[in-house]
Design a protein that fits this description.
The chain is an alpha/beta fold. The protein has an eight-stranded mixed beta sheet with strand order 3-2-1-4-7-6-8-5, sandwiched between helices. Strands 9-10 form a two-stranded antiparallel sheet. Helix 1 packs across helix 10 and helix 1 packs parallel to helix 11. The termini are far apart.
Length: about 450
């Protein structure tokens, strides 16, 4: 029994130290994100500078589609509306064994439009092997020297593709350029509002911050372009990876190439509207990251330490040490307020908790300000997220850990459920204030 107070105090100190190490790291990235935003805002004046339309390369646009009937037409319309020479675009839809009429919708769209479109129908017995497998199938049909990837639920702004491609061809050391994604259904319910805060914070804190300090960025899985020759040299996408975008990014950096985050190239996407859908999607992400962590750590001491190696160490810290510290902290908090536990360690712990809470809110508000969404409602949502949404992520990590390392369940690609969006799919807002609808059919306000 004499060891119990020592164990209790040790766990508490562990929680405080590891939570604060992550908080300081996140604060540093927030400052980096702000500096990145200021730098990009100044340097964007010549982002469209090219020698002429003839200098733009042929782009092959890969769209993996498995049961995407609810959203696929909106994306095809947006691709047709891109500010990019139509003769230098080929749209390739990989119909991955869809059973909801996705292929029929694509063929109907092709008959009504003049854009080059290739429809690849994957046989049912060969389908459902994941996004990486679908993309590799489409890659064999590509003619362009640049490959673009868009998820079927995306609605890219009309200059998005052009900005990504121009950035790529203007910087020969870049292997790929990834844009910014936003949630067009963010006002749907409380869950989509919280996801919106998460996606903005991730991109303007993590993505922009590490791009500023470490000169690295990770592909976001959609709204990105990559050089075809580099993709071929890397052997395409890893079909066994649940997070094929992150895995491809790591291989890009291992070969000495770079990825750039371009926040002015924007695509609007649909976010999960049900907690069950969100939980399944995030668990797939977490299991994919578990796999990458194990792969990277196995060879960590066999190669030179790099920025991406440090990022994998950070991911290990985040998924295991930080989440464990959060769980311990929450348990101590519940036991303390219920009177079942009394801490005797001297220290300003209430003040530390308050500062941690204020740091979290400050970082969210800084990120929101960069997207001009720093409203009073989002301020209240940030407070709500601290006590609810962030705790859900701990459950996701615990579930992924249990499935991967305890149950050792087979890794299966689980497609994210789509939702009908008759009120949203035709609406987009552009950063310059222009409001446009697909094929100019709808004039509307912010989605």
């Amino acid at each position: 029994m004499t060891f119990l107070p020592l164990i209790r105090d040790g766990l508490f100190i562990f929680a405080v130290v590891f939570i604060w190490l992550m908080l300081l790291y996140q604060f540093l990235l927030t400052l980096g994100g702000l500096l990145f935003w200021k730098r990009e805002k100044i340097s964007r004046a010549d982002e469209q500078a090219i020698d002429g339309e003839d200098s733009l390369p042929l782009v092959s646009i890969l769209i993996p589609a498995r049961n995407e009937a609810l959203v696929i037409e909106g994306l095809l319309d947006r691709m047709a509306a891109q500010n990019y020479p139509p003769q230098k675009m080929e749209i390739i839809v990989i119909n991955d064994g869809s059973q909801d009429g996705t292929g029929d919708i694509v063929m109907s769209w092709k008959e009504r439009n003049r854009h080059v479109l290739k429809l690849i129908n994957v046989l049912p017995e060969e389908s459902g092997r994941g996004k990486g497998a679908a993309l590799n199938r489409g890659l064999s049909y590509c003619s362009g020297e640049v490959v673009a990837v868009y998820d079927a639920d995306n609605l890219p702004e009309k200059d998005s593709l052009r900005k990504l491609v121009v950035e790529l061809i203007n910087h020969p050391k870049l292997a790929a350029v990834t844009g910014l994604f936003r949630a067009y259904n963010r006002h749907r319910n409380w869950l989509t509002r919280l996801i919106n805060l998460e996606s903005i914070a991730f991109q303007w804190i993590i993505q922009a911050g590490r791009n500023y300090f470490l000169n690295i960025a990770f592909l976001a899985g959609t709204n990105y372009v990559i050089r075809r020759n580099i993709l071929d040299a890397l052997g395409g996408w890893d079909e066994g990876a649940l997070t094929e975008d992150t895995e491809l990014t790591l291989r890009i950096y291992e070969q000495g190439w770079r990825v750039k985050f371009l926040p002015t190239a924007i695509s609007w996407e649909q976010e999960p509207e049900k907690l069950k859908t969100w939980f399944r999607q995030r668990t797939r992400w977490a299991r994919g990251n578990n796999d990458l962590i194990v792969r990277q750590l196995k060879g960590l001491f066999q190669r030179r330490l790099s920025a991406t190696s440090l990022e994998m160490i950070n991911l290990f810290y985040l998924y295991y040490l930080f989440v464990l510290a959060i769980i311990i902290s929450d348990l101590f908090f519940i036991l303390s307020i219920s009177g079942l536990l009394s801490l005797r360690l001297p220290g300003p712990y209430l003040e530390l908790w308050l500062i941690a809470f204020l740091l979290f809110i400050f970082e969210i508000l800084v990120a929101l300000a960069m997207e001009k969404e720093d409203s009073f409602l989002n301020f209240l949502l940030a407070i709500m997220a601290y006590f609810t949404y962030t705790k859900l992520w701990a459950l996701v990590v615990l579930r992924s850990f249990f499935e991967d390392f305890i149950q050792r369940r087979k890794k299966i690609w689980i497609k994210t459920e789509r939702f009908p969006e008759p009120d949203y799919s035709q609406r987009l807002i552009f950063q310059d204030g222009e409001k446009d609808g697909v094929n100019n059919k709808a004039k509307s306000v912010d989605p």
